[in-house]
Design goal:
The chain has 482 residues and is an alpha/beta fold. The chain has helices at residues 40-52, 84-103, 114-134, 151-158, 175-178, 184-191, 202-215, 249-257, 259-271, 291-304, 326-346, 363-372, 387-395, 410-415, 427-439, 442-458, 461-474, and strands at residues 11-19, 22-26, 32-36, 54-59, 70-72, 75-80, 135-144, 163-167, 196-199, 219-221, 224-227, 236-242, 277-284, 312-319, 354-357, 375-378, 402-406, 420-422. A 10-stranded mixed beta sheet has the order 5-6-4-1-7-8-9-12-11-10, with helices on both faces. Helix 10 (291-304) links the parallel strand 13 (277-284) and strand 14. Helix 8 crosses helix 13 (387-395). The chain is globular and about 70 Å long. The relative contact order is 0.10. The structure holds 6-O-phosphono-alpha-D-glucopyranose. 6-O-phosphono-alpha-D-glucopyranose (G6P) binds next to strand 1.
């Protein structure tokens, strides 16, 4: 690293995301400690960041933490401070109680609050200014996800010299839903400040282009949007396209091959009483993940006597998430109630129907769980990609295990026909497929897993970031007025 000698404003690549890739804790004497949080995005971007003189702008995750930029792992980390009220209105409110449910096809009703919108604009402006202050002349700035959709335009207004990319990690809804948003036009114009707008699926990109056509006067041709400026100038060309995200497949594959993880997987099965079939669900405790539908189907399968707790068990890891948002609190009540009822009704001494774990675990433990599981259940009602599905595949170099995957995930678009696809709304259909998965013979498991592994091992997250940045930097320089 070049220590603190780099001058401010000298970074050739600036990443902007709601969260920084570190966790902060404030110790007793007010000193700030940070720890790397091993997210997928940071593994993807670290190599490019280190090579390119990179800075990362984001929130620490704690309220009112005003901290100077600092060097870590050869990147400059630039904390953006959020007050308790910003967290309530911008993060819990507009991002996670307006945009999140709206973009996931209104599975839960979105709340539209003008105060939240005001906070969203203010906080987006703060992120845009922080990025503008770090970027070198002509630098590439890559903005991430639904929390920051106004940043591309705000940044372009501050720094027209920059090359700006945006990637939306979650779905982009059909215009018929999107148009509920009172600030839909501002959001579309905010995104169009970018040169390249990336989505998980082709369907998300075309939903966005349809919204542009419906809600603005800009013209579109295929994936290209011509953004006219107010004084009728020639305008800019913006591209909207799919760049399906992935995981660090090789790293996960290697982790799952270590003797420690292999031994831990055996130990997990033994602790569960060596069931014939261990099923596994791994999700943030979020209403988009279809956890209730999954548990309902599983309970009915036990009820019908098609599987029994002596031979079969379900481990459900539900990591705590967004716990101050009402819809998440309600979901937790529902899930925990259903788990309690099913365990009460079908469990026996030494045999729980469902092992419910409201925790998050380090990657080593996740890899061991994946290895231990005969059937992986991913039953999201709507999901941008779903990386749990890809992690499961990367962990299974033994070519065993069955992936049950919802049609409503980005991963289904990419991975079909390897997984058993389900419509989680169709409880009877899902029950049949779960039972099929539990009974699948090893040859069929291998045939499917091989096909899945070919795909996931080849298309890893490094390829994803290279392909996005490759397209972004290859775009012709924008048209300027003479
Ligand atoms: C999704 C979003 C991310 C978000 C993550 C965790 O994957 O696409 O932007 O960071 O969920 O949610 P949280 O609210 O805890 O950041």
């Amino acid at each position: 690293g070049q220590g603190t000698s780099r001058k401010k404003g000298g970074y050739d690549l600036v990443v902007v995301s709601n969260r920084l890739p570190v966790d902060f804790t404030v110790d007793e004497d007010g000193g700030v400690q940070w720890q790397r949080s091993p997210g997928g995005l940071v593994t993807a971007l670290e190599p490019v960041m280190q090579e390119a003189d990179g800075a990362w702008v984001g929130w620490s995750g704690a309220p009112d933490l005003d901290h100077e930029p600092f060097e870590a792992d050869d990147m400059l980390l630039v904390p953006v401070a959020l007050s308790a009220s910003d967290i309530e209105r911008y993060y819990e409110g507009f991002a996670n109680d307006t945009l999140w449910p709206l973009y996931h096809d209104v599975i839960s009703p979105p709340t539209y609050h003008r105060q939240w919108w005001d906070a969203y604009r203010r906080v987006n402006q703060r992120f845009a200014e922080a990025a503008a202050a770090q970027a070198a002349h002509g630098a590439v700035v890559w903005v991430h996800d639904y929390q920051l959709q106004l940043v591309p335009k705000m940044l372009r207004d501050l720094r027209p010299d920059l090359r700006i990319g945006f990637f939306n990690h979650i779905p982009f809804p059909a215009v018929e839903l999107f148009q509920q948003l009172p600030w839909r036009t501002q959001i579309v114009e905010g995104l169009l400040g970018a040169d390249l707008i990336g989505f998980q699926r082709g369907g998300d990109a075309s939903n966005f282009v349809r919204s542009v056509r419906r809600l603005t006067r800009h013209t579109t041709r295929g994936p290209i949007i011509s953004v006219s400026d107010d004084d009728g100038g020639p305008g800019r060309r913006v591209r909207a396209a799919a760049f399906p995200i992935s995981i660090d497949s090789r790293h996960f594959d290697e982790l799952a091959r270590t003797p420690e993880v292999q031994a831990r997987a055996k130990e997990i099965r033994a602790d569960l009483g060596d069931p014939t079939v261990m099923m596994l669900g791994v999700d943030r405790l979020d209403y988009t993940k279809g956890i209730r539908h999954r548990i309902k189907a599983y309970g009915e399968i036990l009820q019908d006597g098609r599987l029994d707790v002596e031979h079969c068990t379900l481990v459900q890891v539900a990591s705590p998430s967004r716990e101050n948002v009402g819809a998440y609190q309600e979901l937790r009540e529902h899930v925990e109630g259903a788990v309690g009822r099913i365990n009460g009704e079908f469990g026996e001494l030494g045999h729980s129907a469902i092992h419910y774990l409201h925790h998050s675990y380090p990657p080593e433990e996740m890899a061991a769980l994946y290895l231990a599981a005969d059937v992986m259940l991913v039953t999201s009602l709507r999901d941008g990609m779903n990386l749990v599905a890809k992690e499961y595949i990367a962990a299974r170099s033994d070519e065993r295990g069955v992936l049950v995957l919802s049609e409503f995930t980005g991963a289904a678009d990419e991975l079909a026909p390897g997984p058993l696809l389900v419509n989680p709304h169709d409880i009877d259909g899902m029950k049949d497929i779960i039972v099929t998965a539990a009974r699948m013979d090893p040859r069929e498991q291998r045939r499917r897993m091989r096909r899945l592994r070919r795909k996931v091992m080849a298309d890893d997250v490094a390829k994803w970031s290279q392909s996005f940045l490759g397209v972004l930097t290859a775009m012709p320089p924008r048209t300027t007025h003479v």
